[in-house]
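Recap from last week: sequence in, structure out.
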Amino acid sequence: MLLEKLFGLDEFGVAVYRAAAGHRYSDIESLAEWVGRPVAQVQAEVHRQTQRGLLRLVGDTWEAQDPALVLEAEHAAERVELEATRSVMVEQRAALYRSGLFADYLAGRRRPGPHDRVVTILDHHQILLKIAELVENAESQVHFLLGGPSPAGPGQVQYIQDLVWGMARAVERGVRVASVWAPEYVAAARAASGTRRLPPLGWVRQSTQVPMRAVVADARAAILPVDPDNLDRGALVVEAPSLLAILADMIERIHRDAQPLAAPPPAADPAVQRRQNAVLALLAQGHTDHVIATQLGVTIRTVRRDVADLYEAHNVTSRFELGAVTASLGLLPPIEV
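Predicted structure tokens:
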């Protein structure tokens, strides 16, 4: 029975609830009369439903409660418990990535040879694990491209989420993160967020010309697919400095030519656009309106009008929000490390 699964109500329990709902403020004796059962049996069932939140004592009588609200309260409690469990799991996975155990495992499976520590081949199910490990341990900078087919298989969605939040944690640590996403990945990430905004992932841009997935971390290791069109063939972990320099330069070039995410329409006057861009940059450096006006050679009223226009363009209400949003849209240059 569906109600038994929802609230643990058997046929008798349903009869008691319906009697209380249909005859508001009934006492135990009246409920027993309505359902045709002994008072003691009805009293025990009423007590159980009261603990579940389905019935409420009002004086010496009973009142049925909205079952939709009861179910929602139970769901809310379950969501809190689930979120606590999920947080623990996320932290456990992050701890695994930081520990380097996965790298140790891969190193143990690598055959020593003349090219040791130059290129390592990963199985397809190891790709996102290794990327997450590199990002979690990054200290200065991460460059990555997000394009091509999505990896399939159990657990891959969770690892992608780990990667996104790992990037966000890297930004919080002060790591310079620059990335270029194919439009379909931007759309998918925005839909998954529920807010149409991406987490704070550094200097994010988008392009239809992303050739493959690739990650370079701290100029010490890079990951790229063996076959950009078929991730089942695995990936390469590159540690040779010359190859790392080439890959980092490639990503920087693609990033430079890519477009900011959801940039607002440019001002009608190019001079106004340039001035507002300068205002954004100076605000990001923490300057006051007076300092900005002095540096740009304009009045403080002009600066404040530009700030108001920027608020409206980016749908924000504070300078903190303005800085966060414009940085996440790729409209501010990254802080050099």
